């Protein structure tokens, strides 16, 4: 819950920012010297980071708490104004500035475990707006931020940017706003992400004005300006009441449309594709993602023939040691490629869905492999699964003349362990149709959602905070807009359903990989797509119904039911959702079932 006094301070700060921007605009002299868009972007980035540094200095120099808080907000806004530039050109530094207030663990291998204390704007926000202010910590955080901003400034050079870079930069921010910006992802205390997004839309309008001469027709540029202005205005709304569904449906989709038109009008050719396809029509479409981005690069191209071959391999039981087990044994297509069991036969965990499994950067509940091709090795070798070997797999496939013919057609050579695994992975990557009732509705293809379901989505994205871990459009832990990292979390899942005096499940999760103490009970965030078909829930199948799942989250996860864990990443505060609100969220989640 955001304190009303904090909202008042924030509103006052944003008013002053708007006033100062207006004064600057009124007094700005026209520069007669021709300046390239790249030079403008670089100059603007450096200028705003200078402003941020100034305001961070005044945080410590302020004589009253309210002035220190306002200075913090001004500093954050200054950086947010260049978020589109900074996040695209220097993503690692951007993520460092806005990292969450949780201990960061970097596990290179068992002998190289780094523990990094959280620093940055999110941490400073929580410290500066807490009931008891630790001024030593405030000084520590502001010093870190100032030093980091100076480092960024000293190493900034944007003269390499091409038009396609700018277009990627622009679309990245459109995606960021519609996936994490409207959810409050990086403003957990003040909840100012909507206001910040409003300001960023005005900044995008300014950036685009530096490319106005590149438009063949003024009509398209004018449409962009109108869209940015409208979106900026709509964003000035109450966080809990903001209609995120209509915003994405009416405005994010419109921005994708304008972006694609601009690519065509500017006659831009992209050298390659990022996670999002260069021709993606919207965020919720089967053509949105570049599947090759999530595959081993040696064979990133995915064809119908490869998918068909992979499906045949997926359903073949001859690869297991006794010929009784195939991939489809635990991943049955009729129940979203799960098995309906709390714990899969002879296993220790629940069987995850294969739907949308290819669109992530970590695999297994403990995130121990980084690709589907790597995951398949584990399944083949596991004594309680296929209990076979890679050599035996290859020999079995080579012993089938039909398989050899297919591999010659698809790969141009006889089957190898790499091509076999790639084919299976290609089939799994194809299981991402984006054709649910929700997808068809929010993309504007067909209005199919009820008011209850729409409200459920808005709650999911806002008050209930679900989308701060289950990011749209995948609704898993793969973070947009780069989709380069799949997050793991500590929720405090009990051994069985309970609402009090619960006992933590004995599965240590990620800890088992490197024995990192601070990673006990951490698990990867799975997708909630097709959740109506994938009961029971959690890594151990502890919850039989979605009502139980919602109750667990509403109470604050493990902390709310008596499980006290130092590193729980789920906020321990109760959400205080009403029964009707929980029902609406469940109604929304059920719309994510593929047709």
From TrEMBL:
Record has Heme as a keyword: yes
Q: What name goes with this protein?
A: Methylamine utilization protein
Q: Which InterPro entries match?
A: Cyt_c-like_dom, Cyt_c-like_dom_sf, Cytochrome_c_Peroxidase/MauG, Di-haem_cyt_c_peroxidsae
* Keyword Metal-binding listed: yes
Q: Matching PANTHER family, A to Z?
A: BLL6722 PROTEIN, CYTOCHROME C PEROXIDASE-RELATED
Domain (Cytochrome c) spans 305-432, 451-593
Q: Which GO terms describe its cellular component?
A: cell envelope
